[in-house]
Each structure stands twice: as C-alpha cells, then as structure tokens.
C-alpha cells in the first residue's frame, strides 16, 4: 500500500491551538435546489441510474425486541409550553409542494423519481458526533422513582446543556438523539405520533427548539413496523409520509429508523420510501437505517449499493452492551468483513458499529482508549451513550481528544482496516487520511503485561520513498526521522492501544 504523494503537502504535527475545519452541508449547495423557504434535492447524474429497487431480504428480530404493549393508553395533542427553561420558537416547515419543487420536477422530468429515492441531502459528509440515549438509559420510563434518569424532556435538556456548556459542541459533538420509549402508547385521534404527555409535557417541537437554542441538533427514533422494539407505536407503510412530515414540523434533524415487528417485504418497501418522504418534507433530516442489522449485515441479503443511496448511516450488527466483550465482538465482525464494509463507507454514508460506551461501567481506562481509537480508525460515528452530568475527567479527556477527532472527521472519509494480525496478539489498523497522512493503531489483545512490539513502516506496506514523522495521539509525543526500512518499537498495554498520526516530512529522490 502506498501512503502519501509528493504532489500533496504533508499534514504536519497537530497542536492544541491548531484550527481544523469540519465540512458541512453548505459546501454541497450545488446538489440542492434552494429558495428562501425550501431545500429540495436536485437531480445529480447518478440518480438517473440508481433509482433503487429493493430486493427481498430475510428478517430477524432485534436483540432488544419486546412484546407488543398491553393495556390501555392514549394521548392528545402536545400541550403548550408552560414553565421551566425558555424554549424559543422554530419557524414552521414550509409546504414541500412549493414552486421550487415544481421547478425541479419540470427540469428533471422522469428523473425526479430516481432523485426522490436517492438521499442526496448533503448531510453527514463526515461521521456524525453527539450523544444518544439508548445504551446508558435504555427504556427507563419511571420518572416518579428515577426522575433524573428516565426518558424525559428533562434528561435531553440536561444533556443538551452539558454538550453546550462543557466544551463538546465546539469539538463537533452536536447531536442530542432520543431513542426508543419517548412516545405515548397510542397515536392521537388524527393518527399522529405524540410524546408521552407526562414525560414530555411541552412536546417534541419545544424540546427541539431548546436543543437548537443551544446551538445543537436533535435526533429522534422511529420503527418501521407495527411497534417499536420497546412496544410503542411503530410506523407502518401507510404512515411513513405522515410521520416524516411530523418529524419535519417538530424540527428534527436526524431520524433513526429501527425495524422491529416488520416483515422482509415491509422493510424492502419502507426504508426507501422513508428516504423519499424525508426528501419531500423540504427539511434536511439525516437518516440512520437499521435495515442491514436485520439481514445479517452482508451481501447478498444486504444491497449496499441501494443502502448508500438511501441512508446517511446504517447499523449492520447487533446492539453494543456495556462490556469489553461486546466491543470486541463488534470489532471482530468489522475486521472479518472489512473487504465489504470499507468499500461502502464514505462522505454522506457511513457504517455504524454503534455507540461509544466510554464513561460507563464496563470498560477499563485502557479499553476506553481502545474503543475511541478503533472507532476513529473505522471512520465510525462518535455517538456517546453515557451520563455527561457525571463523566469522569479521564473519560472526558479520551472523548475530547482533539487530534483523535480531527482524524475521525478527516474529509476523505476512508474507513480504515486491519492490516496485520500477529501471533503475539498485536493487531495493526491503518486509515488513509488527507494530505498524505495516515492513522496507525497498534492494538493489544493480550491480558498479561505491556508488550514491546517491534516493526517497521515498510512491513506495514509504507513503500513511499520518504521520511515520516509520527505524533502519538494520546501522549502528543513526536517521533521523527522514520524511514520505511528502519525498525521502531511501541509499548502496548493489555487491551490497550498506541495510536499514531503519521505523515511524510521529506520526499527522497529515487536512487
């Protein structure tokens, strides 16, 4: 593998004061037809050939599937804002059937059908970062016994405050994502989804307004099926357009669509149909699909060409648990199938190995550093599921490592891969980065003692005729004068990592 090019400037060492830019959707306005009130997808060339036709797939239940709800329930419309934190108004979502949409239809003609099925929303050009409720708080709905930790507007407002006030937002952690169990047990009289009136008394729109007022974005959860995995109202095929409009009206910025209680045919129809429905709302809403996780995650059951056209990210393996064994199981699956998975990831469409559990109860300090480094080299979303109100300083330092985040958010968006698996139980991962740089992770599966691992860049397939410099991502130390043929040694702690940000400093003439 060739690393670097003499035609590109080297990346150089990273410093705390350095400014790094994060690409946003504003860089991709050429893909959007825009008026002052409506953003609708234009018709990129690939839409002409990629009007998705879903194939039949085998369905399996989610690992957190529960029985359908029992008993009576119900809720009316969302109550007005009453008291508590001030929640600003968000402009109403404008009618997607605007003159801008009609103009696109006229210009694109029949290609509009293909366009509507392709996501092309200009979002998530780098992996999303933020916070997600599920792994840490699950479906805790008992706010009388546990008011601080139940799934409620209070919890999400608290997390928004922490992201905004504790230095997370400035680093790119901007999503506050609701997961399952936020809904009332029944839809309202008009068939609309409504939040639980006791746990979300101000409603979801007011909560989104508050999140936006803190300079953040809000995500929400739905399920393409009769029920959510937790037994709350799902989104059946005839409710997709209604729910997409509801989410847009509330000001939602991201939708995670699960797949409990749905058939293979319903999933094959529903996931692409939700893409079209979200596009037609006129509001940019990032779309996370759980579809491949219900099909085993691999071709031929999973059509990644289709998936890359309809989803911004997707879950393709089981739910993470608060344990090191769970982290290793996910890593093993990704490594075993990296030839398939690496090829389908990139700007706007990402593999999602699930949440970061750093700061909870199941990982040691070394294991926490390892999950952060390995998720970063996989170009994974950095969606924490922890309690930001009581996070330890060591966990915060791992999650707020600026060089780590720079690597994760690299604009090339290339997913890394395992390149070497040693008998000594050391594994080496590599991720190509922009400006001829690379990320190297030396990961130990040993459980006995720190291991001195000796290798060379040439053995790791660095064949460029250059001299390299490496910056240790965690310590900040600089290692200079690394020629490909020279040996070096790193000391890796049990279940730990050494991670390098590597870049060429001198291009040598070929002799």
Task: Please provide a written account of the structure.
The protein has 511 residues and is α/β, with parallel strands linked by helices. It folds into 2 domains: 129-414, TIM Barrel (Alpha-Beta Barrel), CATH 3.20.20.70; 419-507, Golgi alpha-mannosidase II (Immunoglobulin-like, Sandwich). Helices cover 25% and strands 18% of the residues. The protein contains 13 helices and 18 strands. The chain has helices at residues 99-108, 111-117, 134-137, 153-165, 204-213, 240-250, 264-280, 304-310, 324-336, 338-344, 365-377, 393-399, 402-408, and strands at 32-34, 39-41, 129-132, 175-177, 217-223, 254-258, 286-289, 313-315, 350-352, 382-384, 417-421, 426-432, 438-444, 451-456, 466-472, 478-482, 487-492, 497-507. The strands form 4 sheets. It has an 8-stranded parallel sheet. The chain has a 6-stranded antiparallel sheet with strand order 11-12-13-18-15-16, covered by helices on one side. Strand 7, helix 8 and strand 8 form a beta-alpha-beta unit. Helix 4 (153-165) packs parallel to helix 5 (204-213) and helix 6 crosses helix 7. The protein is globular. Residues 1-10 and 17-117 have low confidence and may be disordered.
